[in-house]
């Protein structure tokens, strides 16, 4: 068994460094950008035609929070090639597995994180808005200099949890032929007939990655809360 572990671990780790971690990071960064814009759109007080944009944002959040991530991956990778639009996509929307995975993970992460960011912004006392307006600050300036920095500290723990969950969810990318850590462990298990050993080994690697992220979360919380008076 030790020989199986020593020969398989480098292959699983290589897949993690080549696919699991990069896909997680890129998807999370894109997802955060989507989440921020979605949250700001939903919090906007504009009227008129902007209501349509707010409705689209609400529908997007509802759609990706109401359907399983695995189903979303299948729709994007296996389903969209059948969506043929003459003059635009005559052969359907076809994407490479990594591109389809990043797109799906980003949209899914954006939907969940947008609610986290929206709640964090709403948690900031409204009196700070009024005080900033009273000295002539505009809404974008208030968001950038007062509200968002405080909302970042509040949203850091749940956003970190979302990132850790995303790292584990990348195991679903094996279903669309991305050779990440879990897929590699499946391939090796099919060769050596040791599924318990291989799946336990890949679980250890996921646990190690997530432990590092948990440590990083704690460090960032200390940095962002260094001026906050602790509650006795």
UniProtKB/TrEMBL annotation:
Give UniProt keywords alphabetically: Amino-acid transport, Cell membrane, Membrane, Transmembrane, Transmembrane helix, Transport
By sequence similarity, the record places it as follows:
Belongs to the binding-protein-dependent transport system permease family.
Instruction: Name the PROSITE patterns for this protein.
Output: ABC_TM1
Identify the domain of life: Bacteria
Q: List all membrane-crossing ranges.
A: 20-41, 62-80, 92-113, 196-216
Q: Which GO terms describe its molecular function?
A: L-cystine transmembrane transporter activity
UniProt keyword annotation of Transmembrane present: yes
* InterPro entries the UniProt entry points to: AA_ABC_transptr_permease_3TM, ArtM/GltK/GlnP/TcyL/YhdX-like, MetI-like, MetI-like_sf
Q: Which named protein is this?
A: Cysteine ABC transporter permease
Native organism is Secundilactobacillus collinoides
Q: Where does the ABC transmembrane type-1 domain start and stop, copy by copy?
A: 17-214
Q: Which Gene3D superfamilies match?
A: MetI-like (1.10.3720.10)
Q: How does it sit in the membrane?
A: Multi-pass membrane protein
Principal place of residence: membrane
Which Pfam families does this one have?
A: BPD_transp_1
User: Under the cellular component aspect of Gene Ontology, which terms does the record hold?
Assistant: ATP-binding cassette (ABC) transporter complex
The coiled-coil regions, if any, are: none
- Protein's cellular compartments: Cell membrane
What NCBIfam families is this protein classified in?
HEQRo_perm_3TM
């Amino acid at each position: 068994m030790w020989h199986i572990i020593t020969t398989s671990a480098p292959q699983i780790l290589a897949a993690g460094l080549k696919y699991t971690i990069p896909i997680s990071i890129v998807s999370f960064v894109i997802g955060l950008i989507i989440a921020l814009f979605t949250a700001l759109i939903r919090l906007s007080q504009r009227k008129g035609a902007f209501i349509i944009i707010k409705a689209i944002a609400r529908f997007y959040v509802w759609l990706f929070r109401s359907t399983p991530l695995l189903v979303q991956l299948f729709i994007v990778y296996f389903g969209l090639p059948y969506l043929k639009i003459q003059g635009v996509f005559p052969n359907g929307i076809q994407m490479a597995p990594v591109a389809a995975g990043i797109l799906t993970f980003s949209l899914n992460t954006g939907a969940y994180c947008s609610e986290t960011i929206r709640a964090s912004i709403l948690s900031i006392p409204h009196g700070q808005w009024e005080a900033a307006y009273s000295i002539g600050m505009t809404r974008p300036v208030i968001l950038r200099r007062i509200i968002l920095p405080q909302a970042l500290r509040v949203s850091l723990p749940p956003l970190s949890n979302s990132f850790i969950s995303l790292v584990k969810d990348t195991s679903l990318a094996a279903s669309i032929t991305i050779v990440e850590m879990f897929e590699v462990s499946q391939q090796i298990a099919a060769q050596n007939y040791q599924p318990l050993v291989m799946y336990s080994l890949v679980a250890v690697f996921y646990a190690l990655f997530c432990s590092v992220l948990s440590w990083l979360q704690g460090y960032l919380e200390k940095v962002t809360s260094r001026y906050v008076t602790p509650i006795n």
